Amino acid sequence: MKKTLNIVLVILLLAGLIGVRFWQEQLFYDPLLVFFEGVYLNAEKLPDLDFRKLLISISARFWLNSTLSLSMLFLLFRKSGIVKISFLVYLVVFILLLVGFALVVLNYTSECSLLLFYIRRFLIQPILVLILVPAFYYHKIRSEK
Hints:
Shape: elongated
Number of helices: 7
Order of helices and strands: HHHHHHH
Strand content: under 5%
Radius of gyration: 17 Å
Mean pLDDT: 93
Largest sheet: none
Structural class: mainly alpha
């Protein structure tokens, strides 16, 4: 019964991550969504945007995805140490990427378009959980031998 509940909760968390992506336009301010769907590789400048509002929105999305991901890690491994280490990873990655994102947005040139695309992608998508789940699973298997 407990294992079934765990599976259901992990599936609900995955649905939450999918929901964040599905309703991204309604939930978050991000004029770069449309920008990166268009011909951004040759764009000389970014679309008009509210820089402060964009940083707050990107940050909110990152931490919403992170909360769902950290909850998933806890349910999968049931060790608070894994959640603590993962939180530190998320925090360091967030600080580094948000500073990089801000610098690229403020100093944008067309040569920076791919850099901005990938930094933003890493901030708004739950990519870290895709790295951490297999890493901790591998560690668990190795430590049981």
